[in-house]
Amino acid sequence: MVEGELRGVIALDGPSGTGKSTVARRLATLLGAGYLDTGAMFRAVTLAVLRAGVDPTDEVEVTRVAEGVDLRMSTDPADQDVRLGDDTVNAEIRGQAVTLAVSAVSAVPRVRELLKLHQWRIVDEACAGRGGIVVEGRDIGTAIVPDAPLKVFLTASADARARRRTSQDAAEGRKSTLDATRADVERRDGLDSSRAASPLRPAEDAVWLDTTDLDVEGVLDRILGLVDERGLRGVAAGW
Q1: 38 is in an annotated binding site
Q2: Could you tell me the CATH number of the domain that includes residue 60?
Q3: 109 among the known binding-site residues?
Q4: Is 14 annotated as a binding residue?
Q5: 32 annotated ligand binder
Q6: What is the enzyme's class at the highest EC level (predicted)?
Q7: Which of 73, 85, 140, 210 would disulfide-bridge 11, Cβ 3.0–4.6 Å?
Q8: Which residues in the chain belong to E strands, given as ranges?
């Protein structure tokens, strides 16, 4: 694979624990493309809200904090860096406090609007500089890049997603239990699917891919097949 092989945008959506982040980073690396984790952006704003001592359910105060956030995102899939100002917050945004508060913060319409504008700028810059970008989140194909030439909606059983999340937490030094993680997965599913602003749902033209019984390589093979079917390597595809 060569730098800048992808032309256009690949939108990867789906709930927590479907393998989005791992697959998106690997896919971007294989295609020489940029990578954007929009969930990390919402987590960073949530961290800023918590640091400010603001109630995550107070939309007015959450909006005030969000409007003043200096959020900086790397698009290098091999070197993910999330910053609030000059402060690297990669580990802190994955903590339990942020995990419990992020759904409330991400449901605030003004927060979503501010981050949407930021995400559009990042996508434009990556397409201009690298030729393409893989973007992952929960409303990418419906709200952020609805004209993306390839949209994939990843899904998996709740049990499989809870197991993956628990294993990931353990690998990264965070304490969790399978039962607690499953409860959190189901809680996030309910909140993200029922929020008024850009709820979690597949785009009408998204390709559904169930990852329950697939490993990362299997998921990548399926998506790379779709990339080739749609002619998104090495030719101008646009978005």
Answers
A1: no
A2: 3.40.50.300
A3: no
A4: yes
A5: no
A6: transferase
A7: 140
A8: 8-13, 34-37, 71-73, 82-84, 87-88, 132-137, 150-155, 207-210
Cβ pair 42, 94 in contact under 8 A:
no
pLDDT in tens, 58-88: 999 999 999 999 999 999 999 989 999 999 9
In a domain, 235, yes or no: no
Residue 19 among known ligand-binding residues: yes
Domain range holding 205?
8-229
**Residue 188 token pair:** 């996030």
- Residue 1 covered by a domain: no
Is 16 marked as binding a ligand?
yes
3-class SS of residue 88: strand
C-alpha span between 150 and 134 (Å, rounded): 10
In a domain, 2, yes or no: no
Residue at token pair 């194909």:
141
pLDDT tens profile 35-46: 999 999 999 999
Question: Does residue 238 belong to any structural domain of this protein?
Answer: no
d(CA 107, CA 194) in angstroms, rounded, equals 10
Q: Is 103 marked as a binding-site residue? A: no
